[in-house]
Every structure is written in C-alpha cells, then in structure tokens.
Specification:
The chain is α+β, with helices and mostly antiparallel strands and 162 residues long. 18% of the residues lie in helices and 17% in strands.
Length: 162
C-alpha cells in the first residue's frame, strides 16, 4: 500500500521502499539550471559534474555559500524555481538564459540524494542554521552528491543560443 507517511527521511517520502512501491505521483523528478560548464556537458550528453567532486564541504556550508566549489549539485523539486535561476540576470553579468535539465532521482544512488527542502540536514536530522534553512525551504532544494550520470537526466529546456 502506498501512503503518505511521516518520519520518512527520503526524497520519496510517501513510499518507504521505492523498489517495490510505485511513484504514482511522479515526485522523483528534480530540476537544475546549469552553469556554463555543466551546460556544455549536457549538450554533449555526458555526466554533469559538481564544481569539485573531491571537495569535502558540509551541506550547511554548500547552501550558505553558493560560490564555494563543492561536491554537491543543487537542484529543486519545483520547475518554476529552476526557470527563475535560468533567467538572464544582467545585473550579475548573465545575459543569456541557461539550459534546464530534469533529473530522475530514481536513477541515482539514494545515498547521494539529500532532500533539504524541509530545512533539515538529512545526515544529522538537525535543522540547518539560517540562512541555509531559509534558502533550502524557499528553493525546495535537493542536493546531489557527486555527478549526475547522463542516463539520469534529460534536457528540459535549452537556454541561450541553443
């Protein structure tokens, strides 16, 4: 029986065992607005890499400072959030829209998917400190530790001149 149950620390939330229960609500798709290097990887149909796969930053540090070169890739459960991040932002020097991918988290190792959209660190069960807690909740953030294999994503919307 599939039910909405509390106390489940996984992204699948309403299914305790995704190997035997169905995702009838389609809640396992997350979105990412790609940076330039990641966009090139997606357009070449290769795995999407984090800024630094050998880094060892905490979840708190990654969310607090988006400029760090971490081992995580930020994604969102909400398409409209990815579209906002993909939009041009001339004040920050971004003149073109970015490509957005949709990622099927069912094709990733569940241990590499960290749902922080509730503001709680899934590794510790402790609420994140602000501003990370506020941002993770606002952006419905899900972190992916390491790369995203090319069979786990598809291009949702091409940006810029593509």
């Amino acid at each position: 029986m599939i039910a909405l149950e509390g106390g489940n620390p996984t992204i699948y939330g309403y299914v305790f065992n995704s190997n035997i229960e169905l995702d009838i609500l389609g809640l396992i798709i997350v979105y990412r607005s790609l940076n330039g290097k990641q966009e090139e990887q997606a357009l070449n149909n290769t795995s999407i890499q984090p800024k630094n796969s050998s880094a060892n930053y905490s979840i708190q540090e990654h969310i607090d400072n988006g400029n760090l070169e971490t081992q995580y890739i930020s994604t969102t459960k909400r398409q409209e959030i990815a579209e906002r991040y993909a939009s041009p932002n001339p004040k920050r020097g971004k003149t073109e829209s970015s490509t957005i991918i949709e990622i099927d988290t069912d094709k990733l190792n569940p241990k590499k998917v960290c749902d922080v959209s509730n503001g709680i660190n899934p590794e510790t069960g402790v609420p994140l400190n602000n501003p990370a807690r506020k941002w993770a909740r606002k952006d419905s953030e899900v972190l992916i530790h390491g790369d995203i294999p090319n069979d786990a994503y598809k291009i949702h919307k091409k940006g810029g001149n593509h």
